[in-house]
Amino acid sequence: MGKVKLTVWIDEETYALLKAYVVRKYQKLHGVLGEEVDRAIRLLLSLESQENPEEALFKTVKPSRKYIDLLRWLYDKGQRDELITDTAIKQYIRFNLGVKSKSSIYSYYNFAKMFLVEEEKTEDKVTVFSVDIEKVEKYAKIHNIELEEPARTTVKEPEPSKVTIRGFEVSLETIPKKTPNQSALTEIVMDLYQSGYSASEIVNKLEALGLNISANRVLNIIRRELRNEFVWLWDINSFRNSWRRWDKCVACSVVLC
Questions:
Q1: What is the band of 244 on the pLDDT scale with cuts at 50, 70, 90?
Q2: How many beta carbons lie within 10 A of that of residue 172, not counting itself?
Q3: What confidence score (pLDDT) does residue 159 get?
């Protein structure tokens, strides 16, 4: 179905609470505020019709293909009675589902939390969950999802011991853990950039190499190198133009003589 524009006046405090909820859930407002208002209206209508609140909530969350893959992965963990951490869930969303932006990762993580039961928090503030199989099966039944199918993997998780740069597999054991000197770091960054990687992807590759380099530093390296390349090209072109002018002057002198 299509979408319609809805303009209404609501209480200022209610609007502030709604914005705070959406930002806490997605880390942004743009593009998701309307979605959450739609969910709230659907939930209210379901509750008014005396429907089960949990079922009403499940009906408001329409599953995409990646949501279904995440649901099947959770179901598989639940079937094996495995405990999973919040970090493991976010890594699965990022590497196996191919979700890159932080706000999207939070969106998928919040979806997963509907089917999780918090068991404990470790000393290093890692949350450990178990999977509520009944909730997963109830959601799957509402949306006619087959849970037994294997979860699809769109992006292969990199091997922990190796990383690929420009088609070559590099063993992490051969790379020093401390940050390399500036020239070596620049060479690595520019190799990845010229291979078509974005700044955020370069940061991820460097993290896999054990190098904790910020995105701003990566961007500064790229800008500096591109600026140097531009200046070098400008100097060459300037030299060529000067040579052409000098060559023309010589030619004129020969003709006049």
A1: low
A2: 14
A3: 46
Averaged pLDDT, 42-54: 67
- Predicted local confidence at residue 228, as pLDDT: 73
CA distances, 77 to each of 16, 132, 217 (Å): 38, 10, 39
The gap from C-alpha 255 to its chain's centroid, in whole angstroms, comes to 68
8-state DSSP, 145: -
Residues 6+ apart with CB under 8 A from 120: 127, 128
Beta-carbon contacts of 180 under 8 Å, excluding residues fewer than 6 positions away, are 188, 211
Name every residue whose Cβ is closer than 8 Å to that of residue 185 and which is 6 or more positions away in sequence.
179, 211, 213, 221
Q: Quick check: 63 and 143 in contact, CB under 8 A?
A: yes
- Residue 124 phi, psi (nearest 5): -90, 25
What is the pLDDT, as a whole number, of residue 5? 83
CATH number of this structure's domain 65-142: 1.10.10
Order of strands across the sheet with 127-131? 84-85, 127-131, 116-121
Instruction: Find all residues with CB under 8 Å of 25, minimum gap 6, and list them.
Output: 32, 36, 106, 107, 110
pLDDT digits (tens, 9 = 90+) for 193-219: 777 778 888 888 777 766 777 888 888
- Mean pLDDT of all residues in 82-95: 91
Domain extents in the chain: 12-60, 65-142, 165-218
What is the number of other CB atoms lying within 10 angstroms of the CB of residue 152? 13
